[in-house]
Every structure is written in C-alpha cells, then in structure tokens.
Amino acid sequence: MKRSLFYFLMVLVVSLMVACSGNESNEKTETAASGAEEGNSVTSEMKLVNDGKLTFAMSGLLKPLNYKENEKLVGFDVEIGTEIANRIGLEPNPVTNPWETIIQGLRGNKYDAIIGSMTATEERAKQVDFSDPYYISGATVFISSKNEDIKTLDDLKGKTIGVMQASTYVEDAKKYTDKIKEFPSEIYALQDLPPGRLDAVITDKIVGISAMKESGLEIQTVGDELKREEIAVAINKDNLALLEAINKAIADMVADGTYKEISTKWFGEDLLK
Fold first, then answer.
1. Which of the four pLDDT bands, split at 50, 70 and 90, describes residue 45?
2. Is residue 87 domain-resident?
3. Where residue 177 sits, what CATH number does that domain have?
4. Is 12 part of a structural domain of the chain?
5. For the segment 71-92, what is each residue's pLDDT rounded down to a tens digit?
6. What mean pLDDT comes out for the span 116-132?
7. Which of 36, 42, 57, 225 is the most exposed place for a label (fewest CB within 10 A)?
C-alpha cells in the first residue's frame, strides 16, 4: 500500500513538472511571437509601392541636394532618404520624376514619398502630408557678379527673373515682375546669369551658394533671404504609419548625431541649426 502511494505521488510530481515546463515554454514562445509581431507591425501598416522598399522621388537636377553622378543618384537628399529607409527597416529606392509633376506622381502611387528638397507650404499641404523638416533654408535672389543695375530687391521690378518650374519661387518672382522664365532645374537658370540672358534668379540659398563654389559661376546674392523655408518629406495623406515612422527616423538621426554628420559632409554645417 505504501509503495503504491509512493509511486502515485512520484507520477503526480513528474506530471506537474512537465506541465509547468510546457507552460513556461508556451509563454516564451508567445512572448517572442508578440515581440516579433510588434516589431513588424509598423512596417506592415505602411502602404508601400514596393514591399520592403522605401521608394522616394526627387528631380535629380538639384546639385548638391540630388543629382546623378556616373548614372547613380547622389546628394544630400539621397543620403537623408537612405538613412530614413534604413532606420525604418526598408531598402532605400531613390527615383527621379520631373518636378512639375512630382506631387501628381506621389498621389498616383508611383512612389511612397518625395525627398527632394520640397518646401512645406499650406497650398501643398492640401494635397499631401509633410514630415517634420529635415533642413531649413531660404529663398534668395542671385544676380551676375558683373550686374551693376540691381543693388537692392526693389531694383528687381520689371526685370527678367528665372525660377524652377512649379516651385514656390514662381510666386516670389511675381511680386517683382511678369517677365518670368521657368526652368526644369535651378542650375540651368543660374547658368543664364553670367551671359546676361537673365537679370536675376530666385532659388534656394544652398543651391545658389553651392553653384558658386562648385561650378565657379560668377554670381552673387542680393539683399536678405526673401523668406525662411522648412524643407520636409511629402507623403500621401492616407499613410499615417509611414509618416510617423519617417518623423521618428528624423528625430533619431538628429538625436544621435547622424544628421549633423551628413549635413556637415555636404554643407559644412548643421542645416537644422
């Protein structure tokens, strides 16, 4: 009788140990699955043109922000977009699109975002959502270094001004003249200043100064910046998960110093300061 009771108790103890071990194993499995699910939840909620990729557009004509070198897209915008994609856990896929139709391309789902030095404006915000800014710049007037007729912004009245097609600078130019020439790239416009084909060009301060340094264009600025501009990533309005992920990536880049490294590499300074 005692021996039977002993065997019964032993079987009971072993059964309880096996049950506890099984429960613990199940809990660990469920926890691991839950963690993996949480890690992938943000990406799975995103609406992407190509699974596993962040496809982002730019004109490819805006040196040093975005341009082609040996048939490869390079520049500040490209590096920022690549870093954002990597932090989200996506493969970066930069593409080009003509600037005048770049928002239409986004809304038509040709790409997931525009990371091409687009100024966040109220008018554009009616069509797309904007991220937090990834750099700050300003609209600036450039003229030929040999131009002696334009000394102040008031002297722009009635002059021929060049701007990039479908840019915010078209409206800036209208404040001074109706003689406005639009170009597919600001660089082309700036190149028309020294020969005198244009009296002035309104463009991003960074673009103009970089053209002076890198291309040796004999141009100069006139007056102060026309306005402060916040440059941001544009995303379709029905893609909140992607917008939040991009904002987090930008914030993390700034916090850990990566943003400053990229900005300093291209411009010698932190463009968010």
1. confident
2. yes
3. 3.40.190.10
4. no
5. 999 999 999 999 999 999 999 9
6. 97
7. 36
